[in-house]
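Q: Here's a chain of 299 amino acids. Please give me its 3D structure as tokens.
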Amino acid sequence: MNDNRQKLKGEALLALAAIIWGTAFVFQKIGMDHIGPMTFTFFRFGIGTLAMIPVVLISDRFKKRKGSPLTSNGDRTLLIGALCCGVTNFIASYLQQIGIMYTTAGKAGFLTAMDMVMIPFLLLILGRKVHKLTWVGVLIGLAGMYLLCINEGFNIAIGDALCLGGALGFALQILFIDYYVDRVDPIKLALFEFAVTAILSMVFTPILETVVISDVVSCAVPLLYTAILEVCIAFTLEMVGLKYSQPAIGTVIMSFESVFAVLTGALILHEVMTGREITGCIIMLCAFIIAQIPEMLEK
């Protein structure tokens, strides 16, 4: 009974994280009415990094009470992992943020979730075996993406292409996280990953954009939502949730962020999708679920 309650708790936390991530696309879209994508990325992850510091301190205190070992902030593996995750997160987040300027929040949500379909290709390049059923999910996902993005002239809009580029970056980031998360403190890894993203954004912001403080202030709500709720809180919910639930089930739950992106885009921004695009979204959602079935069966 306790195990079932723990699993239910974990799945509930992951569902809440998916809701936050899904609704964040709307705030990212709104933010582009005030400031540039690089400026938004800098403040989003800069504030998110500061918000993560008390989370790390609380986590350390909790581990001390339980007698668990603490990972040193100067640990070489932690710093290398943070650098790898931070660089890929920076590239992916910036591409996504530019892309969302030219497409809807709903489409951006589904295209970003394509990282789960891209991961099997990356695993194949790394020489790792991929289950046949996972490849079925990949093919179905590509069919859904075709309906969602490709027009009659077999062209893809610039915003959709940039979001797909971001999805590839996030797929690489996930593989780095998967490698380092069992070797270092995952919450500290997140803190330093966000710090690397913020630092890189800080370097490129004055080169690519002009920062106007009044515009940043007018963008306070989107920035605070994406920085505190999405970057800091949703990640913490994900880490705790995955601790109590099966990874495959957790991945399926988190894939529903794309559904919440469409719903909030329609409710708040009054975005409308064509029947073809809606069909593509439904097919892609099915693909995300099918791709996780082999791990569910294995568990």
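Q: Can you summarize the key feature?
A: The mean pLDDT is 87.
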